[in-house]
Structure to design on (233 residues):
């Protein structure tokens, strides 16, 4: 039997994407066929026009207040709620350290990591570096160092970033997202069929995995033509 594939579109500069990753991982821990699941990370840039690094004189709360047209105090409240949510998923967010910037090169590195078999490790390292440690996610030197810590050859990453390798792969991911109608992240597609939008509760991921696995395994309840009754499936 082929592995059950989970395709995920997300961005590094996205706190909900990190929460969604943790909740998918929690679902996989209780999924009895977790060893037969392959997770593939796809690029999605929340802001393609972002500079390499944004003006550090403006706080994250100030940027958020401007984006949503609210006060800095309310934006700070939004940040605190997001931090509290993250803690429940064992994530330690430090928005006061965030050095946001363009994530295109980070996505190129993550694509490279997929070809080297360490994609999840590199994705995790970059999310933690951005959301917890205050690393400049748009800086190529930082990207090479972080990728090296996660299993890639830092020199090879530096050489790749000096050119345009994997740029087409990032754009292909984003084109596919547009084709699927994805306008926000994280966005999960399980088994090429079951879509989950946002960092949903762990049980939602478990249900999606179980449904997709049953169909992959040829469970009669999921054959084409099967029907759902008044009580659902």
């Amino acid at each position: 039997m082929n592995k059950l594939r989970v395709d995920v579109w997300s961005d590094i500069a996205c706190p909900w994407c990190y929460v969604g990753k943790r909740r998918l991982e929690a679902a996989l821990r209780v999924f009895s066929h977790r060893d037969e699941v392959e997770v593939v990370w796809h690029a999605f840039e929340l802001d393609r026009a972002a500079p390499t690094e944004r003006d550090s004189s403006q706080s994250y709360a100030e940027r958020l207040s401007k984006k949503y047209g609210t006060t800095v105090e309310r934006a700070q409240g939004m940040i605190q709620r997001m931090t509290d949510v993250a803690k429940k998923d064992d994530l330690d967010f430090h928005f006061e350290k965030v050095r946001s910037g363009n994530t295109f090169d980070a996505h190129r590195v993550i694509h490279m990591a997929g070809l080297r078999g360490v994609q999840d490790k590199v994705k995790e390292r970059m999310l933690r570096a951005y959301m917890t440690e205050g690393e400049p996610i748009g800086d190529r030197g930082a990207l090479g160092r972080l990728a090296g810590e996660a299993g890639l050859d830092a020199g090879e990453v530096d050489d790749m970033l000096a050119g345009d390798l994997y740029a087409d792969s990032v754009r292909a991911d984003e084109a596919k997202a547009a084709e699927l109608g994805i306008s926000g992240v994280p966005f999960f597609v399980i088994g090429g069929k079951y879509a989950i939008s946002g960092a949903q509760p762990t049980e939602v991921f478990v249900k999606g995995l179980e449904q997709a696995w049953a169909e992959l395994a040829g469970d009669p309840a999921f054959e084409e033509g099967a029907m759902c009754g008044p009580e659902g499936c």
Summary: Residues 72-88 form the longest helix (17 residues). Confidence is low (pLDDT under 50) at residues 222-233. The first strand starts at residue 4 and ends at 10.
